[in-house]
Write a structure and sequence with these properties.
Maltoporin, Chain A; 809 residues; 45 strands; globular; 22-stranded antiparallel β-barrel; mainly beta; six-stranded mixed sheet; disordered N terminus
C-alpha cells in the first residue's frame, strides 16, 4: 500500500510540472477598498505602491470597477502601499512580501474610515501573527510557525494556547471536560483511538490554522464544551506550489510529508501525504494503600514497562471549484492507514500490613493493532441573486475500523501455600465506526449591519465493537472460549437538529448575536449478552447569546452564555470487559445519561502597537457529569453528580521589534464536585496551566522559536502533579528561502511525567508514569512555486474568501 501511494504521487507530480512549464516568476498584488461605515465600494481612491526598503515609488493606481486595484508584473521584493481619498483617513499597509514562495498577495477588503477633519494615517502589518485572539476564538496560525515543518498535528497541538495534550496525545481545551475535534468546520467523529492515531500522522505542513472555540455558534453541534477546529490548506496561490519535508530524531522517530496544490482562477486542487514511524517507551509505578476501619490493612504495588511502535500513512485530496461566480463546489477525501504494536511487562506485588509480600503476579502482554479510516466531505454553495443570501448544502461520510490482537501470559505465585498458577489469554477486538452527516444552511444579510442564519443538520452513526476472548487450558492443551469476556456491542446514534441565529452590529461598535438550536437524539444499542439498560429518544433546546463592545480602537469586552451537552462516547458506553490488569478491571456503562453544561464567559482585550493582553473569566455548571471512577479493583464510567467550575485564563504577547515576539498565557480553575458517590474526601480541585515562548527573526534568514508549557489537572477522585513540556527550534533558509533546515529539541530538560493521586472509599493510590519524549530532530524541507507571467486577478474568489483587514473602526 505504501509503495502504491508513493508511486501515485510520483506519477502525479510530473504531470502538474509539465502543465506549468510556461509559468514564470512575477508578483501580483490585489485588493478592494470600501467605506468602513456603509460598506460601499470606494472608486477612484489613490493607491501608491512603494518599496519598503527605501520608500521609492514603484507604481500608482486608482481603484475602479467596484473599488478594486491590481499591481501585476512586480519584481519580488518587500512593499508597502498607501491608500488615500478625499474625506477619508489615509491607510498604509506595510511589509507586503512577494517572493518565489509567495508570488501573489490578495489584501482582501480594506476599509477606509470617513474623516473630513483629521488627515492622519493608520499603519497595519500584512503578516499574520502566530496567535490571534478573538472574543470566542483563539487562532493558532500553523503556517506562520516554524515548529510546523516536519511535525504532526499532535506535535503542533502542544503549542496552541489553552490546549492540553495528555500523555497519549489526546488534545482537550483547558478547563473543559468534553472537547470535540473538527476538521474544516465539520465533526471528525473518529473514535478516541483512531483520532489520536490520525493526529499523530496528519502532517502539520498541510494545516493552515487551528482554532480553539470556547463558545461555538449554534451552527455547530451542541455536543462538547468546546471545539478545536483544524483548518487544512487549500491551493491559495494561482499556479503550482508545494512542499516536501523529511524529519529524523534521536528517539528513532522519522517522518515525511508532501504537499502539492494547483490553482487557476476558478479551480483549486491540492493533496497532502504524511508518513510517520514513532517508537514509544514508557514505564509506570502504581502504589495502592488499602484501609479497613480507617487503618492500613494492606498494600499493592505495580511496576510496568511498555515498548511500542507506531507507523501510519495519511493521504488527503481537496478540490475547490467555482462553477460560476455564484456557485462553488468543494470536495475533500482523507484516507488513513496505521499499525501499532509492542510488548508490555508487569510485576504486581501484594503486601500485608507489615509490607511482607503475600502474592506475586508477573505478566507479559503483546499486542498488534491495524486500522484504517476513510472520510469524504463535500459542499455546494449558491449565492442567490439580488443579495438574497447564500444557500449551502453539505455531507460527510466516514468509515473507521480497528483490528486489535492481544496475547497475555500471567503467572500467579501465592506465598502462603507456594501455589503457582499460570494463565494465558487471547483477546481479539474488532471495532468499526460508520456515519453520515447531512447539513443545509441559509445565510442572508438583513441590513448592512445585521444578518440571519438558519439551517438543518442530521447525523447517522453506528459503532460496532466485537470482542472474542479465549483462555488456554494447560490440562487439555487447548484454547477454550471465555464466555464471560466474549461479547459484541453495537451502538446507534441518530441526531436531527434545526437552528437559527441573528447577528447585529451598530455604528457605535456594539455587536450582538443570539441563536438557538434544537436537537432530537435517538440512540439505542444491541449486545450479545442480556441488556441491563435501555435508551429513549430525547429533545433538547440549546440557547446561545453573546454581546460585545469595542472602545477607542484599543479595547474590547464581551460576554456570552451557552448551553452544551456531553453525550457519552462509545468508549464510555461499551460494556466489554478488559481484565488484562487484575488490579484495574475496566468496562463501560451503557446506562450513562448525557451531561448538560451551562457556561458563561466574560472576555476583555487590550491592544497596543507592540502588545496585546486578553483575559477571560468563565463559569460552568455541569450536571450528571461523566467521569471514570475506580472502586477497589474495578473502574468504569458513571454519572457521578454535578460540578461548578470557575476559570481565569490570561493571554498576552509583546513585540518589542518587528523581529521579536514574546507570547505567554496563564490559567487557573477551581472545580467543586457534588456527588452521590462517596468517592473522595476532596471535593474541591484546582487546575493550573501556563506557557511562554519567544519567536525571533535573525539576519541571514535564521529564525528561532521556543515554547515551555506547564499544567496539572484535578479530577473527581483526586489530583495530578504538575507536568512540564518544552520545545525549541531554529531554522535557516537557503536558495532564496526555497530550502529550509531546522533543528529542534523536544523536552530537553526532562522526560514527560504524569503523577496522579487518587482517593477512594477504602484506598489511596499514587500513579507515576514516564514517557520517553526527549528528542533532538533534524528537518529538511523544500518549497516550490510556479506562477504565470500574465496571471489575472483572482476576482471574487479571493475577495470573498480572504479575511477582511479593517484599517480603522
Amino acid at each position: 500500500m505504501t509503495i502504491r501511494i508513493l508511486h501515485l504521487l510520483l506519477c502525479f507530480l510530473p504531470v502538474l510540472l509539465s502543465a506549468t512549464r510556461s509559468l514564470a516568476d512575477n508578483g501580483l498584488l490585489t485588493g478592494k477598498v470600501i467605506d468602513n461605515k456603509t460598506g460601499e465600494v470606494v472608486d477612484f481612491a489613490a493607491v501608491a505602491l512603494f518599496k519598503q526598503s527605501d520608500g521609492s515609488v514603484v507604481k500608482s493606481y486608482q481603484t475602479e470597477n467596484g473599488g478594486k486595484f491590481q499591481f501585476s508584473n512586480l519584481p519580488f521584493d518587500t512593499y508597502k502601499i498607501k491608500i488615500s481619498f478625499v474625506g477619508y483617513t489615509s491607510a498604509i499597509i506595510e511589509n507586503i512580501v512577494l517572493s518565489k514562495q509567495h508570488p501573489t498577495k490578495n489584501l482582501g477588503t480594506i476599509k477606509l474610515k470617513p474623516d473630513a477633519n483629521v488627515l492622519n494615517e493608520v499603519v497595519v502589518t500584512d503578516t499574520k501573527p502566530v496567535v490571534q485572539f478573538g472574543t470566542d476564538t483563539i487562532t493558532y496560525n500553523v503556517s506562520q510557525s516554524l515548529m510546523a515543518e516536519g511535525s504532526t498535528a499532535s506535535d503542533v497541538m502542544r503549542n496552541v494556547p489553552m490546549v492540553d495534550v495528555d500523555i497519549d496525545g489526546k488534545p482537550t481545551i483547558a478547563g473543559k471536560r468534553n472537547t470535540r475535534i473538527f476538521m474544516d468546520g465539520k465533526p471528525s467523529d473518529y473514535t478516541a483511538a483512531t483520532l489520536t492515531d490520525l493526529l499523530n500522522v496528519l502532517p502539520a505542513d498541510a494545516i493552515e490554522k487551528i482554532e480553539v472555540i470556547t463558545n461555538p455558534d449554534v451552527q455547530y453541534a451542541a455536543d462538547g464544551d468546546g471545539i478545536i477546529n483544524i483548518t487544512l490548506k487549500k491551493g491559495y496561490k494561482i499556479g503550482l506550489n508545494g512542499s516536501v519535508a523529511l524529519t529524523g530524531g534521536t528517539l528513532g522517530t522519522y517522518n515525511g510529508s508532501a504537499y502539492i496544490a494547483y490553482r487557476t482562477d476558478s479551480l483549486s486542487i491540492s493533496s497532502s501525504y504524511g508518513y510517520i514511524n514513532r517508537p514509544t517507551t514508557s514505564d509506570g509505578v502504581v502504589n495502592t494503600t488499602y484501609y479497613k476501619n480507617d487503618a492500613i490493612s494492606s498494600y499493592r504495588n505495580q511496576y510496568s514497562t511498555n515498548d511500542n511502535g507506531n507507523k501510519g500513512h495519511n493521504l488527503r485530496g481537496n478540490m475547490d471549484w467555482d462553477i460560476t461566480p455564484n456557485q462553488n463546489v468543494r470536495v475533500a477525501a482523507n484516507v488513513n492507514f496505521r499499525n501499532t504494536g509492542g510488548d508490555s511487562y508487569l510485576d504486581d506485588h501484594s503486601l500485608d500490613i507489615k509490607s511482607v509480600e503475600t502474592k506475586l503476579i508477573q505478566q507479559n502482554n503483546s499486542n498488534v493493532n491495524d486500522g484504517s479510516s476513510y472520510n469524504l466531505d463535500a459542499d455546494y454553495s449558491l449565492k442567490l441573486k439580488n443579495n438574497k443570501g447564500t444557500l449551502k448544502a453539505g455531507m460527510v461520510g466516514f468509515y473507521n475500523n480497528n483490528d486489535r490482537d492481544r496475547n497475555l501470559a500471567r503467572e500467579i505465585l501465592t506465598h502462603s501455600n507456594g501455589l503457582l498458577v499460570k494463565t494465558r489469554q487471547y483477546y481479539n477486538n474488532v471495532a468499526a465506526n460508520t456515519g453520515l452527516d447531512l447539513n443545509l444552511n441559509y445565510y442572508r444579510p438583513v441590513t448592512k449591519l445585521s444578518s440571519l442564519s438558519m439551517g438543518f443538520q442530521s447525523s447517522f452513526h453506528k459503532n460496532d465493537n466485537d470482542q472474542f476472548v479465549t483462555g488456554y487450558n494447560f490440562d487439555t492443551l487447548q484454547d477454550t472460549v471465555n464466555s464471560n469476556l466474549t461479547n459484541r456491542f453495537i451502538y446507534y446514534e441518530n441526531i436531527y437538529a434545526v437552528y437559527a441565529s441573528y447577528s447585529l452590529r451598530t455604528k457605535k461598535r456594539w455587536s450582538f448575536r443570539a441563536g438557538g438550536r434544537t436537537e432530537l437524539t435517538d440512540a439505542s444499542f444491541e449486545q450479545d449478552k442480556p441488556a441491563t439498560a435501555s435508551m429513549k429518544p430525547y429533545i433538547n433546546f440549546f440557547p446561545n447569546i453573546s454581546l460585545g463592545k469595542s472602545f477607542r480602537k484599543r479595547y474590547n469586552v464581551g460576554i456570552s452564555y451557552s448551553m452544551r451537552i456531553a453525550r457519552p462516547r462509545d468508549y464510555a458506553l461499551n460494556p466489554l470487559v478488559d481484565s488484562s490488569n487484575t488490579a484495574n478491571i475496566f468496562y463501560g456503562n451503557p446506562a450513562l445519561k448525557p451531561s448538560y453544561t451551562h457556561q458563561v464567559e466574560l472576555s476583555f482585550g487590550a491592544f497596543g502597537q507592540k502588545w496585546s493582553f486578553t483575559p477571560r473569566l468563565s463559569y460552568a455548571n455541569s450536571g450528571h457529569i461523566i467521569e471514570r471512577i475506580r472502586m477497589d479493583t474495578v473502574s468504569t464510567y458513571e454519572n457521578v453528580g454535578s460540578s461548578n467550575t470557575y476559570a481565569l485564563n490570561m493571554f498576552g504577547n509583546y513585540r518589542p521589534t518587528k523581529k521579536i515576539t514574546f507570547t505567554g498565557s496563564f490559567g487557573v480553575s477551581r472545580t467543586t464536585y457534588e456527588s452521590t458517590f462517596n468517592l473522595s474526601k476532596n471535593t474541591v480541585g484546582y487546575s493550573y496551566r501556563a506557557s511562554v515562548g519567544p519567536s525571533i527573526q535573525f539576519p541571514k534568514r535564521i529564525a528561532f522559536e521556543g515554547n515551555v508549557n506547564y499544567y496539572n489537572r484535578a479530577s473527581v477522585q483526586g489530583r495530578s502533579k504538575g507536568s512540564v513540556s518544552a520545545s525549541f527550534g531554529a531554522r535557516k533558509g537557503f536558495l532564496d528561502n526555497k530550502l529550509f533546515v531546522r533543528v529542534m529539541s523536544v523536552d530537553p530538560f526532562a522526560q514527560r511525567r504524569n503523577i496522579q493521586f487518587v482517593e477512594g472509599i477504602n484506598y489511596t493510590q499514587e500513579r507515576n508514569s514516564k514517557l520517553a519524549t526527549r528528542n533532538y530532530q533534524l528537518t529538511v524541507s523544500y518549497r516550490f512555486t510556479k506562477v504565470g507571467r500574465n496571471t489575472v486577478n483572482k476576482q471574487k474568489k479571493d475577495s470573498s474568501k480572504a479575511p477582511e483587514t479593517p484599517i480603522s473602526e
